[in-house]
Amino acid sequence: MASDGDDLSAPDPSEPQAPTGSSQQPQGSDDDASTQPQPAPEPQPAPDDDQNADSNTASGSSTVAISDFDYQPGTLTVPAGTTITWRNSDVAAHTVTADDSTFDSQRIAPDGSFSVTLDEPGTYTYHCEFHPNMEATIEVTG
Q1: Is the CB of residue 115 less than 8 Å from the CB of residue 93?
Q2: Does residue 71 sit within a domain?
Q3: Which residues touch 22 (CB under 8 Å, ≥6 apart)?
Q4: Domain range holding 70?
Q5: Does residue 65 lie in a domain region?
Q6: Residue 101 located in a structural domain
Q7: CATH number of the structural domain spanning residue 68
Q8: How many domains does the chain contain in total?
Q9: Antiparallel, parallel or unpaired: β 61-67 and 82-88
Q10: How would you class 96 by CB atoms within 10 Å of its CB: exposed for 0-12, middle for 13-18, buried for 19 or more?
Q11: What is the 3-state secondary structure (H, E, C) of the chain?
Q12: Among residues of the chain, what percentage have pLDDT more than 90?
């Protein structure tokens, strides 16, 4: 039985104390750099994918919107082998007709689409047969 002066729950100051769960390194040790807060890494841009296909540069596939009697974007740059899809969200029918006859969609009804894969590097200008003021350009890089 313990005497009145002994408190069994209090630590004995002459005994070494166990760590309390926090692993701290003494200051000045070689491990200081690993215990110091580090700045967050810089955010990196997401790789191009089909979700980003409406941008001016894409790989694999790309989409051109037809709306308000215009092709959007008006200039598109893509690598060779890219499949380009035109989606007509306008109220009128349109065509996607290459000036050099490389491709011709014929009539694209509202809510319709047309796709072509361009394998050869070069500049492709195209227009709408029904609305000659509608013109755009595709740059295909090697």
Answers
A1: no
A2: yes
A3: none
A4: 54-141
A5: yes
A6: yes
A7: 2.60.40.420
A8: 1
A9: parallel
A10: buried
A11: CCCCCCCCCCCCCCCCCCCCCCCCCCCCCCCHHHHCCCCCCCCCCCCCCHHHCCCCECCCEEEEEEECCEEECCEEEEECCEEEEEEECCCCCECCEECCCCCECCCECCCCEEEEEECCCEEEEEECCCCCCCEEEEEEEC
A12: 58
Question: Are 57 and 63 spatial neighbours (Cβ–Cβ below 8 Å)?
Answer: no
d(CA 94, CA 87): 10
63 pLDDT above the threshold of 70: yes
Q: Among candidates 102, 106, 95, 49, which has minimal Cα distance to 71?
A: 95
Global pTM exceeds 0.70: no
Q: What token pair was written down for 67?
A: 């709306």
**Residue 61 within a domain:** yes
Would you call 101 exposed, middle or buried from its count of C-beta atoms within 10 A (0-12, 13-18, 19+)?
exposed
Of the candidates 126, 116, 115, the residue with the CA atom closest to the CA atom of residue 71? 126
pLDDT, tens digit, 9 for 90 and up, residues 114-140: 999 999 999 999 999 999 999 999 999
β pairing state of 122-127 and 97-98? antiparallel
**How many angstroms separate the first and last alpha carbons of the chain?**
91
Rg over alpha carbons for the chain, rounded to the nearest Å, is 34
